[in-house]
Amino acid sequence: MASGSVADQEGQVMLLGFWFSAFVKRVEWALKLKGIEYDYVEEDLANKSTLLLTSNPIHKKVPVLIHNGNPIAESLVIIEYIDETWKQNTILPQDPYERAMARFWANFIEQKVTEPIREALVSQGEQQEKKVKELKEAMEVVEGEAKAKLNDKTLFFGGGNGVGYVDIVLGWTCNWMETIEEVGGFKVLDPESQPQFHKWMANVREVPFIKTTLEPKEKLVEFFRMVRQDRLGLVANK
Amino acid sequence: MVIAAVEMAEEIILLDFWPSMFGMKVRIALTEKGLKYERREENLLNKSPLLLEMNPIHKKVPVLIHNGKPICESQIIVQYIDEVWKDKSPLLPSDPYERAKARFWADYIDKKVWERLHLLGGKLWRTKGEEQEAGKKEYIEYLKLLEEELGDKPYFGGENFGFVDLTLMPYFSWLHVFEIATKFSIEVECPKLITWSKRCMERESVSTSLPDHQKLYGFFLQLKKWHGIE
Description:
The complex is a heterodimer.
Chain A: H1 6-9, E1 13-17, H2 22-34, E2 39-42, H3 50-55, E3 64-67, E4 70-73, H4 75-85, H5 96-121, H6 125-149, H7 165-170, H8 173-184, H9 195-206, H10 208-211, H11 217-232
Parallel strand pairs in A: 1-2
Antiparallel strand pairs in A: 1-3, 3-4
Helix pairs in contact in A: 2-4, 5-6, 5-8, 6-9, 8-11
Chain B: E1 12-16, H1 21-32, E2 38-41, H2 49-54, E3 63-66, E4 69-72, H3 74-84, H4 96-126, H5 129-150, H6 163-182, H7 191-201, H8 204-207, H9 213-226
Parallel strand pairs in B: 1-2
Antiparallel strand pairs in B: 1-3, 3-4
Helix pairs in contact in B: 1-3, 1-6, 4-5, 4-6, 6-9
């Protein structure tokens, strides 16, 4: 990291992250979409840096974006910040109503897909079944939205051929969902009842700046297996 | 024949429920902007066809219907209001970093403070003595972070009333109810928040959007009865 005068720091962008975190990847996708250069700092979950703890004292979590020395936390807040600060390649729609719709879907995804799948990962039995049921219902809504918005000409929720806000927010599903299903021992994804969604996931995987960031599945499985076992206090089961 | 241009009237309808903290936020935002709107009271036990049509996914209030188009989720509605009627009383700061901070704190309030208030509410209903005391203590810890963030500023955003202020004020109505119910006061631990809440109440947008404390307390007692709690 460059030391020296404040002028040297002008425009400096730093991202604190964990390799396995889908929330961190979202921010990376937003930065890459805009063509923004950034320094990536890999944090140690068991030994968080002073920088992380002082930049995000409230939640002590990644991702944290530090721009010109100013820290911003929470992936969705960071993405909006990025979109408002760098004007090229817009992420959110310009029209206020369309923006509200994009934010609505991002919120829906967080509440009904992202949160429950994390809970399903670290639960079992009846508790897990409840979450899986919630997830299946949510996926019906997602498939409905995919059917309504996507076709052969419109590959992404962002419209046209470019990814937008909703794609970035939901994009983690293209890699992490199967991983968490495998580790958690449940199934939510179903190509038969979710054909449009599966088409969308396949397209997301091929977006060049997303493709290069996807971690190998085995590596993610190993990591999340550890997380699940740790939370459930289970014995290693090969 | 000259046909005079007719200005399209803005039609703003708010589907609401008077004790809802989320509804209160939107009322404050609309009033800050000086907007005329029609408030429709929903019966949550018998939701109107309009509500079910306008918010089919969550079936919740508040829903803003602007010229026939629905917007749901209070934080999203408030930002929409700010972006459409941007020439008057900005609710969010113009600087992107300040906006990010405002969104961060609004998110914190909605998740952590709401969660804790909900749990506290549950604890106040169902527990007594030590457990209740522990619940109150936890809640204060979360509020203290807000007290720190406010510091000596008149409002969370600085000189001007805004997004974070209108997000937090509705919780204070409910906090007041719990204070009456359990003789629990945050005055000692969070004096700055108390001063801030009084300052906010002096604004017409806030005082006309928040329900009367006694009325809200009455509603709280009703809820208790329905849940069979003494």
